[in-house]
Design a protein that fits this description.
Layout (H helix, E strand, L loop, with lengths): L26 E5 L6 E5 L12 E5 L1 E3 L3 E6 L5 E11 L4 E7 L9 E4 L5 E7 L5 E6 L5 H11 L14 H6 L7 E4 L11 H10 L2 E7 L22 E5 L1 H12 L4 E4 L1 H8 L11 E5 L14 E5 L6 H10 L1 H13 L10 E4 L1
Parallel strand pairs: 1-17, 3-12, 3-14, 4-11, 14-16
Antiparallel strand pairs: 1-2, 5-6, 5-8, 6-7, 7-10, 8-9, 9-10, 12-13, 13-15, 16-17
Helix pairs in contact: 6-7
Protein name: S-adenosylmethionine:tRNA ribosyltransferase-isomerase
InterPro entries: QueA, QueA_dom1, QueA_dom2, QueA_sf
Subcellular location: Cytoplasm
């Protein structure tokens, strides 16, 4: 498969600027992988397709307020910092993206907040856009994190809209987000409400919680036509023993296993035994999935409608079948489905 094969007739008007009024009332396109049959439903009706002892696998990562705005010493130039990864808790070292990167050099100091609540020093140029910062903070670690939260902003992708609003504080998190560490939300999980989760529980459908801390690399532009040459950034993964046991019991009992989102698929396919069972895991993955690929764990999945030539679209096409998924996207455009983070969903069976 080549990069150009994942292009489609996309318009920015397809992108949802705001979430649906209620999490579980976005639209749901249901696609049968074998036949290509398409149904148009409401998301909360997903429960109709699953039975007792089936398992949904969720990503419980939590987005932290990773975007900071500050000023460069002496010149006062405005600088935007995107916190990517904490490198060393005691030394307050972080990998960050800087915009505009060309204005920042090793040794520069950056000031954040009123009365310069946080000060950081650039100590390394890690990539063409990235830097390593040391935050100069005398208080406890808890006080330091409180300062980050006070100054940080929800890192809403700018292709949705430039301005972050109060609604994003809640709606750019899943209701089961407990493990802090992501810089972007696992979007398929945003459709699940507390009421829908309770209905799933009452029907006997089980939930398995795993963690993949979504990084910006998940959204990095693919710039090579030959997909075998694209490299994914590493992201942290944790699959507890309890989650693996639930999934494996369902598989052994002939019950359905549904991956909620591409991040879940990447996590579980990164930790598979030789007989196709899910293994507990505590590590990192840079797995890149595209056609052709044989999936081992899940036999169904939920996904939002992704941007052209994105790695997420490539994974969905690998799972649903390239022709089937690209046709479904064409139908979605014709039927007015909303695309992107706050958009509608697809269920592949």
């Amino acid at each position: 498969m080549k990069l150009s094969q994942y292009n489609y007739n996309f318009s920015p008007e397809l992108l949802a600027k705001y979430p649906a009024d209620n999490r579980d009332e976005s639209r749901l396109m249901v696609v049968e992988r074998k036949t290509g049959k398409i149904e148009h439903r409401i998301f909360k009706e997903i429960i109709d397709y699953f039975n007792e002892k089936d398992v949904f696998i969720f990503n419980n990562t939590k987005v932290f307020p990773a975007r900071l705005y500050g000023n460069k010493e002496k010149t006062g130039a405005e600088i935007e910092i995107f916190l990517l990864r904490e490198l060393n808790r005691d030394l307050r070292l972080w990998d960050v993206l800087v915009d505009p990167a060309r204005k920042i050099r090793i040794g520069n100091k950056l000031y954040f907040g009123d009365d310069d609540l946080l000060v950081a020093e650039v100590i390394d140029n890690t990539t063409s856009r990235g830097r390593t910062l040391r935050f100069l903070f005398d208080g406890t670690y808890e006080e330091f994190r409180a300062a980050l939260y006070k100054l940080g902003e929800t890192p809403l992708p700018k292709w949705i809209r430039d301005k972050v609003e109060p609604i994003d504080e809640e709606r750019y998190q899943t209701i089961f987000a407990t493990e802090e560490g992501a810089v972007a939300a696992p979007t398929a999980g945003l459709h699940f409400s507390k009421h829908l989760m309770k209905r799933l529980e009452i029907k006997g459908i089980e939930s398995a919680m795993i963690t993949l801390h979504v990084g910006l690399g998940n959204f990095r532009t693919v710039d090579v036509e030959d997909l075998t040459k694209h490299k994914m950034d590493s992201e942290q993964v944790h699959i507890p023993e309890e989650a693996a046991a639930k999934v494996n019991r369902a598989k052994e009992g002939g019950h359905r296993v549904c991956a909620i989102g591409t991040t879940v698929q990447r996590a579980i396919e990164s930790s598979v035994s030789t007989n196709g069972m899910l293994k507990p895991c505590d590590g990192w993955t840079n797995k890149f999935i595209f056609c052709p690929y044989d999936f081992s764990v899940a036999d169904s999945m939920v996904s939002n409608f992704h941007l052209p030539c994105s790695t997420q679209l490539m994974l969905v096409a690998a799972f649903g079948g390239y022709e089937t998924v690209m046709h479904a996207y064409k139908v979605a455009i014709e039927e007015g489905y909303r695309f992107g983070t706050y958009g509608d969903a697809m269920l592949l069976l």
